[in-house]
C-alpha cells in the first residue's frame, strides 16, 4: 500500500516528499493510518538540520501523531489512537507520513471527547504543559499562592499552559518576546504579559519574590532569573531550552526559599501519567479554544513551517494534515 511521506536523508536534498511502502518503515507491531501530526520544536530542529536529532537515515520525522489503527495484534482495527514521544520521529519513523508503524505500548486510545485533530492541536506541547501543571499542583501551589510565570508564552507549550492554568483559576503572567502576541495570550487567559527582556538578564542570587510557580519553556538566563525571583515554596517546572541549555543559579532559592525545580520529560513519561494528563486536557482545553492558535498545513508546507519554528516566528501550534 503506497503512501506519501516526508523523509529526512543524509544526502542532498535532505528533505524529500516521496512515495514509500510500509516495508520502508522501521517495523513496529501496529500500523496506524495517520490523520494529523503536530509540528514541534524538536521536529523543526531535525528538518532544518539545526540540532542533532536524527542519526539514522532515512527517517520520517514527526514526534507526535493521531490516527486510526489499520492492523494490530493489540488494538482492534478502527481504534483511534494517539502517540507522543518514545523517541518516535527521532530513532523510529514518525508521523509525517500517511501510515506509521508503531509499537502498541507507545499508543494511547483517544480518550472520550478528543478527536485526532484536537489531540494534535494539543500534541506533545499540550501533554508537556499539562504535566507541568500537574507538577505545580503536586507541589502544593494553589491559585491563592500567587502568580505563575509562563515563559516562551507565544509557543506551543506556553499557550496551552496559559489556557490550563487560567482555567484552574491561577493568575498567569505570560512572558513573551513578541509584543504582537499580547492580545492572543490574554485571550488564552493571561492576566499580564511581561516582556521577555525583563527576565532575560543577569539576576542577583535572590531578588524580590514574585512567582508562586513557573512553567519555563526557555531555560538559560530566563530560568536563572525566574529562580531568583520566586516566592517561598514556589514550584518551577523546566521543560525547554529555546533560550539556551545553560543554567546559572545559586543554592539560595532552594535553601532560603524552599523553591522546587521540577524537570518535565514528556518523552518517556509513564502511560498512566499520560492517560491522566490527556483525560484532563480533553476537557480543560476545548478544540474551539485553540482555533486562533492553530495553523493547518500539508506535507509540502513542513519545511517552511520548520524554518519559522526555529526562527521563533510561529504562534501556537502547526498541524500537518495527512488524511
Ligand atoms: P515553540 O517553538 O512553539 O515555542 C518556543 C517559544 O520560546 C517561542 O515561541 C518563543 O516565545 C520562545 N523563544 C524562542 N527562542 C527564544 C530565545 N532565544 N530566547 C527566549 N525565548 C525564546 O516550542 P514549544 O512550545 O513546542 O517547546 C518549547 C520548549 O520546550 C522547546 O525547547 C522544546 O524543545 C521543549 N519541549 C520539551 C519537552 C519535554 O518533554 N521536556 C516536550 C515539548 C517541548 P515568545 O516569542 O513568546 O517569547
From TrEMBL:
GO terms, molecular function: acryloyl-CoA reductase (NADH) activity; acryloyl-CoA reductase (NADPH) activity
EC number: 1.3.1.95
Domain of life: Bacteria
Domain (Enoyl reductase (ER)) ranges: 15-320
UniProt KW keywords: Oxidoreductase
Top enzyme category: oxidoreductase
Pfam families: ADH_N (PF08240), ADH_zinc_N (PF00107)
PANTHER family: ACRYLYL-COA REDUCTASE ACUI-RELATED, SHORT-CHAIN DEHYDROGENASE/REDUCTASE
Protein name as catalogued: Acryloyl-CoA reductase
Organism: Litorivicinus lipolyticus
Top-level taxonomy: Bacteria, Pseudomonadati, Pseudomonadota, Gammaproteobacteria, Oceanospirillales
